[in-house]
Structure formats: structure tokens, C-alpha cells
Design goal:
- The structure is a single chain.
- The chain is an alpha+beta fold and 309 residues long.
- The chain contains eight helices and four strands.
- The chain has a four-stranded mixed beta sheet, covered by helices on one side.
- Helix 3 runs parallel beside helix 5, helix 5 runs antiparallel to helix 6 and helix 7 packs across helix 8.
- The two termini are 25 Å apart.
- It comes from Phyllobacterium ifriqiyense.
- Belongs to the cation diffusion facilitator (CDF) transporter (TC 2.A.4) family.
- This is Cation diffusion facilitator family transporter.
């Protein structure tokens, strides 16, 4: 049976994390802008600009998570689970936009290079902001994977990207201050922008795959087959197994072949047993089973049946 209490607790956790991501993003943005303000560094400015995207993305993620947890209705009989993918796509687009804005600032800084003011204070402030981001991103990623939330995972990956780029900026600016090579500042911003572009593309690509009803992995398919086999006593074989992921939901459907003389009641008992087992091992699974008598079972071309011992 499904652990309803666990599902409710998971939903509450996801919502709470999405909500607090907004305020964490605003706090980090304030710190990073302060770091840019005291130094005048275009690299730190690019870091602060990405934090603006973090705040907007956190707002989009919160909206999508609220929408995705709405129950199915007449217009959306399969639920609203894919809303989180839209949030992730929006976040990917914003990431790319931030990278383009950074490149614009790099061009200005390249034409009029300037020395850095109060570099060590600015780096200390930026380092504190990055530490906050690292802790929060780890929490989002861990919780997102546990509760199967694409929006939280996308937000966590984006913030972790911010941490990595901030670390690169920190190391580079230390080198710039130590050597006096002010050209390192805009060069670092270029590296930040390229990395952001790559991460934005990855977020969009993964989200589009979800919107296109991408199937589960091969390992997950085999796990589903094993669960069915272990709980299909009385049935003969299964074929045409399909499984896809939509947000936190896994949709599973297959044809179950039984003896032609088996009663509807007995076939129904087998289906219930399989469905309960799948929903126990795969949280928030939706299972559809088509029962076929042995003498009328029709396999789609190129599809192999899995007989039960």
C-alpha cells in the first residue's frame, strides 16, 4: 500500500524548500552585489547578475511546484505533474540570458579596463555568499532527488553552477590582484558566461526530454519487470511494457496474459497484487494493466513477451 503520510510530508518539504529558495536567493544577491560594489569587478558583477536569475528562477520553481501538486481535474485528468518541467525550461532560458548580459559587460570592461577597489573585502563577501549557496544547493539536490522534483533539482544544479563559477572567479581575482593583470577580470567573466551557457542548455535539454514523455532508464525498466514477475503468480506472461516519467510521477502500463479459463475475479486479484507492489516500490506510480486471455494475446511486432516461471 502507498504510504500516504510519507507522500504528504514529501510534498510539504518540497514546497517549503521552494519557498525559502526565494529568500536565500535574495540574500545571496544582496551579498554578491555588495562584493561588486566595493570592488568594481566585472567578474563579480557577472556573479551578481547570475544571482538575479537565481531569484527569478526560484519564483518560477515555487509557482510550478504549487501547480504540480494540484489534484487532477476535468481539464487535466492526468494531473499537473509536468508543470515543473516548464519551470526548468524557464530557468534554462534565464540562465542563457544572464550569460549574454555578462558578455555585454565583458565587452565594456575590455574597452575600458580598470583597477579593482578593495579586492580582498569584496572577495570575502563573495566567498560568504558562495558558501551559503553551496549548502543550499546540496540540500535542494538531495531533497529534489528524494522527492523526485525536477524543479528543485534544476534549481539546485543552477545554484551549484553558481558556486563553481564563483570559486573560479575567486581564484582568478586573487591571481589578478597578486600579479596586477587587470585583464584577468574580464577574462574570468567570459569563462563564467560560457559555463553558464552550457549549464543553461543542459537544463533546457533535460526538461524538454521530460515534456516529450521520455521513457525511464533501462535499469528502471528491468526493476519494474522484476517487481511484476515477483508478484504475478497465476499469470502466464507480460508484454508491451511501457513506462515514462512526468515530474515525480511514473506512469506504467503493460499487457498481462492469463489462462483463458481464469475468472475475472482471479485476474483482478493478480492485477491488484502487481499494482500494489509497483506502487510500494515506486512512489507515486500510476499503473494500467490490460488483461488478455492466452488464446487471444497479440504481441506488437518486434515486442518480446516475458513468461513467468
Amino acid at each position: 500500500m502507498i504510504d500516504t503520510r510519507s507522500a504528504v510530508n514529501g510534498e510539504t518539504t518540497v514546497r517549503r524548500l521552494a519557498f525559502w529558495s526565494i529568500f536565500i536567493g535574495i540574500a545571496v544577491l544582496g551579498l554578491k552585489y555588495a562584493a561588486y560594489h566595493v570592488t568594481g569587478s566585472v567578474a563579480l558583477y557577472s556573479d551578481a547578475l547570475e544571482s538575479i536569475v537565481n531569484v527569478v528562477a526560484a519564483l518560477a520553481a515555487f509557482w510550478a511546484i504549487l501547480l504540480s501538486h494540484k489534484p487532477a481535474d476535468q481539464n487535466h485528468p492526468y494531473g499537473h505533474h509536468k508543470a515543473e518541467y516548464f519551470s526548468a525550461v524557464i530557468e534554462g532560458v534565464l540562465i542563457i540570458l544572464a550569460a549574454l548580459l555578462i558578455l555585454r559587460e565583458v565587452w565594456v570592461a575590455w574597452e575600458t579596463p580598470r583597477s579593482l577597489d578593495e579586492p580582498w573585502l569584496g572577495l570575502a563577501i563573495n566567498g560568504g555568499a558562495s558558501l551559503i549557496n553551496a549548502v543550499w544547493a546540496s540540500l535542494l539536490l538531495r531533497s529534489g532527488r528524494k522527492h523526485r522534483s525536477p524543479a528543485l533539482i534544476a534549481d539546485g544544479k543552477h545554484i551549484m553552477t553558481d558556486v563553481v563559477t564563483s570559486l573560479g572567479v575567486f581564484i582568478g581575482l586573487v591571481g589578478a590582484v597578486a600579479t596586477g593583470w587587470t585583464i584577468l577580470d574580464p577574462l574570468l567573466a567570459v569563462i563564467v558566461a560560457v559555463n553558464i551557457l552550457w549549464q543553461g542548455w543542459r537544463v533546457i535539454s533535460n526538461s524538454v526530454q521530460g515534456l516529450m514523455d521520455g521513457g525511464v532508464s533501462t535499469d528502471e525498466t528491468m526493476r519494474i519487470r522484476d517487481i511484476i514477475s515477483a508478484n504475478a503468480g497465476g499469470a502466464l506472461e507480460v508484454h508491451d511494457l511501457k513506462a515514462r516519467v512526468a515530474g515525480r510521477m511514473t506512469f506504467i502500463e503493460f499487457h498481462l496474459v492469463v489462462d483463458a479459463n481464469m475468472s475475472v475475479r482471479d485476474a483482478h486479484i493478480i492485477c491488484d497484487r502487481i499494482e500494489n507492489a509497483l506502487m510500494h516500490h515506486i512512489p507515486e506510480a500510476s499503473v494500467v494493466i490490460h488483461v488478455e486471455p492466452e488464446d487471444e494475446a497479440k504481441l506488437p511486432i518486434g515486442t518480446a513477451a516475458v513468461p513467468f516461471a
